[in-house]
């Protein structure tokens, strides 16, 4: 029986696999959004489909991801709450 090395090695052809040195340096996820390079927490929320479509359309018009749009919106919301006019 062949030795199994996880789903990646069993499903990805050898020519597309990273070299051992490269794979040792791969870090899952994206670059940290935190100032101190620590793990960036994930925030999730369920929204109605109509709101999701409007948010996605706005993100598309601005050529940014939905995640970036939501980060900006949350940041602006917190700024207004912390510094009321």
UniProtKB/TrEMBL annotation:
<feature type="domain" description="Ribbon-helix-helix protein CopG">
    <location>
        <begin position="43"/>
        <end position="81"/>
    </location>
</feature>
<dbReference type="Pfam" id="PF01402">
    <property type="entry name" value="RHH_1"/>
</dbReference>
<feature type="region of interest" description="Disordered">
    <location>
        <begin position="19"/>
        <end position="41"/>
    </location>
</feature>
<dbReference type="GO" id="GO:0006355">
    <property type="term" value="P:regulation of DNA-templated transcription"/>
</dbReference>
<dbReference type="InterPro" id="IPR010985">
    <property type="entry name" value="Ribbon_hlx_hlx"/>
</dbReference>
<protein>
    <recommendedName>
        <fullName>Ribbon-helix-helix protein CopG domain-containing protein</fullName>
    </recommendedName>
</protein>
<dbReference type="InterPro" id="IPR002145">
    <property type="entry name" value="CopG"/>
</dbReference>
């Amino acid at each position: 029986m062949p030795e199994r090395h996880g789903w990646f090695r069993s499903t990805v052809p050898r020519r597309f696999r990273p070299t051992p040195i490269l794979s040792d340096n791969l870090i899952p996820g994206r670059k940290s959004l935190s100032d101190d390079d620590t793990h960036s927490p994930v925030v999730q929320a369920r929204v109605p489909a109509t709101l999701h479509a409007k948010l996605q359309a706005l993100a598309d018009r601005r050529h940014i991801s939905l995640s970036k749009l939501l980060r900006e919106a949350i940041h602006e919301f917190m700024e207004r709450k912390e510094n009321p006019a």
